[in-house]
Amino acid sequence: MLVADREGIVRHIGRGASGLSAAAASIRELLTLPPPTIRLPSTSLDFGEDVPAGEARTVTLVVRNTGGKDLSITNLESDLEGVTFSLTELTVAPGERATVDITFTPAKSGPFSGTITISSDDPENSSVTVSFSGTAAIIKPPTISIANTSLNFGEDVPAGESKTVTLVVKNTGEKDLSITNVESDLEGVTFSLTELTVAPGDSATVDITLTPAEGGPFSGTITISSDDPENSSVTVALSGTAIVVPVNPRADFDNDGEIGFSDFLAFARAFSTDNPTFDLDGSGTVDFPDFLEFARNFGKSVP
Ligand SMILES: [Ca+2]
Ligand SMILES: [Ca+2]
C-alpha cells in the first residue's frame, strides 16, 4: 500500500521489503520531474520586405520544451487579422522541438506587424508572445506600352512589292506581359509574330510587312491583344501610299513583251561592256545600277 503525504511524496509502501526503498526513490523522482518549459529560439519573425500584396508568405516558428515533462501547447493566435497557423494545438516532448508554419497574405502594400500569443501548460509561462513584421509591396500588373500610335509606310511603296516597318512593344509592368494576338484590318499586312511574352521592363519588336496590291493611299489599324488588365486591346494606325512604278520597256531586250530570264541572260553577257542597249541609266558602262533597274522590271509585261 502506497501512502503519500500532502506534497505527493511517498512516505510508506506496504510492509517492509528490501527493494521498496529503491522503488520509493524512483517514484519520488518521477513525481519531482521538472515541469514543461516553453522556450522560443527566436522571439521575432521576419516576413521580409518584399511580400507581394495579395500573395501568401509563410514563416516558421520554432518551439522548444526544455522541461522534464510533455509540453502541451493549447492555442496560437495573432492580433493581426488574416494570420493563419498550420496547427494551433500540439505536444512537445521533453528536450524536443516543434515547428509551426505561420502564413500571412497582405491585402495592401506597406509595412505590417503584429504579435502571436502561444498558450501552453508551462506553469511559469502559460502565455508567451512572438512579434513579427514585414512589408508588402504592390506588384504592378503587366502593362503594355507602345511608342508609336501610328506607323507610316511612306509615300512611295511600290505596288506589288513588300515593305516592312517595326513596332516596338514594351512591358512597363512588374509581371510578364503576354501578347495573345496581332491583327490588321488592312489587306496585305503580315506580322513576324502574333504571340509573344515580354518580361517586365523588356521590349519586343514585331515586324509588320505590307504588300499593297495596287497604287494609291492606304490606311488601316493594327490591333494588339494582351493580358494587360487596363488595356487588353490597343490599336496602332497604319498609313502610306502605294505607287505603281512604270515599266521600263528598254529592259525587254529581246522585245518579246516580257522582261524575263532570256533578257537576264542577254544582260549578263553584256555586263561590264559599254553596250548602250544594256546601259539602262546611260552612265556609259553596263554595271550594277543597270542591274538594279533591270531587276526592278523583272517579271513584268511591257504594255
Ligand atoms: Ca523579253
Ligand atoms: Ca550604266
Q: In brief, what are we looking at here?
A:
By secondary structure, the chain is mainly β. Helix content is 11%, strand content 42%.
Verbal overview:
- There is one protein chain.
- This protein has 303 residues and is mainly β.
- The chain folds into four domains: 2-31, no CATH class; 38-137, Sandwich (Immunoglobulin-like), CATH 2.60.40; 144-243, Immunoglobulins (Immunoglobulin-like, Sandwich), CATH 2.60.40.10; 249-297, Dockerin domain (Type 1 dockerin domain, Orthogonal Bundle).
- It contains three helices and 22 strands.
- The chain has helices at 20-31, 261-270, 288-297, and strands at residues 2-4, 10-13, 38-39, 44-46, 51-52, 57-65, 71-78, 84-85, 90-92, 97-104, 110-120, 127-137, 144-146, 150-152, 157-158, 163-171, 177-184, 189-191, 196-198, 203-210, 216-226, 233-243.
- The strands form five sheets. Strands 4, 5, 7, 9, 11 and 12 form a six-stranded mixed beta sheet that branches.
- The chain is rod-shaped and about 135 Å long.
- The N and C termini lie far apart (131 Å).
- 19% of the residues are buried.
- The model has no long low-confidence stretch (mean pLDDT 90).
- Bound molecules: calcium ion (2 copies).
- One calcium ion is lined by residues 279, 281, 283, 285-287, 289-290.
Give a topology summary.
Elements: E1 2-4, E2 10-13, H1 20-31, E3 38-39, E4 44-46, E5 51-52, E6 57-65, E7 71-78, E8 84-85, E9 90-92, E10 97-104, E11 110-120, E12 127-137, E13 144-146, E14 150-152, E15 157-158, E16 163-171, E17 177-184, E18 189-191, E19 196-198, E20 203-210, E21 216-226, E22 233-243, H2 261-270, H3 288-297
One calcium ion binds at residues 279, 281, 283, 285-287, 289-290.
